[in-house]
Amino acid sequence: MEKVRIGLIGLGMIAKHHIRAYMDHAEEINGVLVALCDTEEELLQKWGKVTGISKLYTDYHDMLGDDEVDAVFVLTPHHLHRQMTIDAANAGKHIGVEKCFATKLSDADEMIAAAKAKDVKLMLLENCVFDPSVMKAKELIENGEIGNLTMVRVTLGQGTGPMFPDDPEKFSDAFHGYYGLANKLTATGDWRFDSCKMGGGRFYDCGHHRFAVARYLGGEIEEISCIIKYANDGVTDREYCSVTAFKYADSYAVGSFDEHFGAPLSISKTGGSPFDDRVEIIGDKGVIWLNGVEGRLQMKAPLIHYKDGTSISYENLECGYTAAFKFENKEFSDAVLEDREPSCSGEDGKKLLQVIKAAYQSAAENRVVKVSEATDKY
Question: Do residues 102 and 204 lie in contact, with contact meaning Cβ atoms separated by under 8 Å?
Fold first, then answer.
């Protein structure tokens, strides 16, 4: 095949970024969108008109039976990933699965096994590891530009304004309003409030991106310690802020991830996201600062490299939340055409799920947890 023919299952918030990547970078991506699927007919027709795609399905099984579809992207709520992935594998389709890969480790094992049994490619669609600034940082680390890795610090401040943790009614309005804004394209964002569909709390959503970047830059995470503060919205406890520390397996390096609601970050321009989104990568010979995949509070270059008393600013790197989707989609199609494992595989999806579950287990049990100990309890 000259190009991989791809169908999208689920047309919620994340689908528009994949669609934009294919529409804006058709010559660079060795794949083409040929089919769309969603249970909401109005949404399906809307995206059909935008893209000019005529193969429109309300039942994904019908898409899987289409011989003119080589691969599918599963872009649905997390709890649906297992069955859709297994069905796609059994239909002989290559598969990209949006993060979070699954809600259970046992589900992830079944998904990986199904793809292997049918000899189809299985990729975790984690766009943040394909962000140009993150990939450049990885290159600098591997080239020894900061020496031996010492620490990776990841920060995510979500600029929502006052969240009123002491007032359940106000907190509920603010919390739900934030997600309502984030998912204004459709009502599909409501599933994020259901832990059975989501998998758990916010680590299964925006936290996944940050753990993925930390693991991509530093290597496998061996053990983890997590503190989470909760606020009640009148129905259930919601994560208000957290600090997670972790140790890498194959180096002396450690890392941290802090996440919190904060003041409105109106100066953040990148991707339209009001986030304080930063990564600091420290080595024994230099430092790399990443100033925003989803938001650039500091309004500096996407990547700054400090070494030997001088700093280099990489001003011309593509940046912003949507920038990574071109490279992510290119990697998927190239892996299929070259008959190789994608660089962000199903196994990576399971390992990141283990990290998330280990973090929640640490917070619940108030102890350091080895990632290998993670279970589906959390």
Answer: no
